[in-house]
Amino acid sequence: MNLKVLYIIDTLNVAGAEQSLAEITTHFKHTEAIFVHIYPGETLKPYLLSKGVKVYSLNIGEKYGFKDAMKQLKTIYDHEAPDLIHSTLYRSDMIARKMKKFFPHIPLVGSFVNNSYTAIRYKNKSFFMKLKLWLAFKQDYYSARKVDFFISNSETIKEEEGNALHIPPSKITVIYRGRDAQRFEKITANDSINLKEELGLAGKKILLNVSRLIERKGQLDIIKVMPEILRKFPNAILLIAGEGSFRATIEKEILHLNLNEKVILLGKCTYIPELLSIADVFIYPSYAEGLPGALIEAMMSGCIIANSDIGENIECVGMNTSLTFPVGNLEKLKLVILNALNHPDNFRKLRVQAKKTAIEKFSIENIASKYESTYMEFLKK
């Protein structure tokens, strides 16, 4: 039995949920995946098209534009006649749940990809923003009853999101994010040397963070400890790959600490495997996550990893694969980085174990197979 699944997602820009779904669906063996992205942003579209995946680009110009999106989706639903609808990210979730009124016979799958209602989301927010978040939560809470089942990318998120939205555990299946290990295996020593030369990093101690530039990802913590790192390692440099709404705040802190030549914001990057291959330490100080795809990629690359001890990160890295520090503890973060730079050979076993663990837990072929079997099992009920 071959299935047809229609994926509704906000955009096809390169971010955790988007990239993960793109990689998973292109490894399906018995399922036809069709994507609809509601809003502008289609970085991943050429990749999907090259793999034979059909993509509908609605490119709704408004921030929400639910009515316009639903009008176009009705035509797509009728034309494609999918066996399942799978929505991902808040606005697409709301639209897909509204569509359930018109297509009640098509099962709707939801995605838990972030710890959306953790207290950190409300920290330092104005009263208006807190009210806006609360209203979004209420809309999510009541409309979630229209979803037939959810796929969560971690046990931690299953518990947190399930409890927040009062979803029975029996309606939530955990399937980790997958990554294609071959992307990291094929990087050669020459690739790494060439990238270092291209970026002017020969002879540097390279600290790397790959993440969206948003407050909860914790990049400010790394920047704040950089002056002390540089006192011990003047040739250290911090590369941050990613883009986001927190960029201006990060740039301000870089200027404040006079780190213009020591912290480089790379923006969106398409050469992450190559970047990981030149990193002396991969640093992931996040305060809240889903299941961090960037952390999985660092593991597959065999990096020395320093990560915060939040549940989502610990579930990802497992035991004896990384250097862990208490989230938000700048002193511990500094010490972990210095330890890794001072004694890299001491962590060879950690690097090997990280790579082995990542391939066993997050192999894209295994994850894609789990998605397909989960869909099939639900439809048989």
Describe this structure in words.
This protein has helices at 16-25, 45-50, 66-80, 90-99, 127-143, 155-165, 182-185, 189-199, 219-232, 247-256, 272-278, 293-300, 311-317, 330-342, 348-362, 364-380, and strands at residues 3-9, 31-37, 54-57, 84-88, 108-112, 149-152, 172-174, 205-210, 236-241, 263-267, 281-284, 305-308, 323-325. It is built from 16 helices and 13 strands. Helix 3 (66-80) packs across helix 4 (90-99), helix 9 packs across helix 14 and helix 12 (293-300) crosses helix 15. It is 46% helix and 17% strand. It is globular. The two termini are 15 Å apart.
Helices and strands, in order, run as EHEHEHEHEHEHEHHEHEHEHEHEHEHHH
Biggest sheet, spatial arrangement of strands: 3-2-1-4-5-6-7
Termini separation comes to: 15 Å
Mean pLDDT: 94
In CATH terms, what is the architecture of the largest domain?
A: 3-Layer(aba) Sandwich
Number of domains: 2
Number of helices: 16
CATH topology heading of the largest domain: Rossmann fold
Structural class: alpha/beta
> What is the helix content?
40-55%
Pfam families: Glyco_transf_4, Glycos_transf_1
Organism: Antarcticibacterium flavum
Keywords: Transferase
Protein name: Glycosyltransferase
